[in-house]
Write a structure and sequence with these properties.
Helix 5 packs across helix 7 and helix 6 crosses helix 7. The N and C termini lie far apart (64 Å). The chain has 205 residues and is of the alpha/beta class. It contains eight helices and five strands; from the N terminus they run E-E-E-H-H-H-E-H-E-H-H-H-H. The protein has one domain: Nucleotidyltransferase, domain 5 (2-Layer Sandwich).
Amino acid sequence: MRFIAFDLETTGTVPGVDQIVEIGAVRFINGQPEAVFATLVDPQRAIPPGASKVNGITDDMVKGKPTIESLLGSLAEFCGDDFMIAHNAPFDAQFLISDVKKFETAAPKGLILDTLPIARKVFPGLPNYKLGTLVQHLKIPTTDFHRAEEDATYAGHLFMNMVKRISIGGQAPQIANLVALTGKPELRFPQIVRQPKQMDFFGGF
């Protein structure tokens, strides 16, 4: 099984208003991380103290880092058409969707699976379904939380653990069955074909 686990850190919770300050995308092959796309992002605005308190990312850390517009194409190339997973995926996806539309850039082509609703069904009865709670429940080794690469890696291990638990006879479930397990419509990034700017010429002959 091959997929991309991803996570973002942001300046707040509102896509299109708040900005991405860190991207973490980890390619898993046969259950193990094989490649990483991870970078801080200059939001070109001050990071609110509340956001810095959560993720530890400060204005000084992102100063001079690439902007999201300059990174989206490289992220799309890294992800290709592999399917993608994230914990509470719609939150992270909407930030990227907002910027892909704004800058009319390439985007990953694979469908996006949310590990959160799957976890609720695979692990019933937990006090909550935060990524940290699930990671602790499964005894997945950890370092930092609320940093994009680390959280993406944890989500990838969580996903593989769940796939193993719901596999039948060693056969992993089909992607369509995993989508159905989320109870949500299929989620994908928009594929935008950038139109050349047309110039209007006025005047008679």
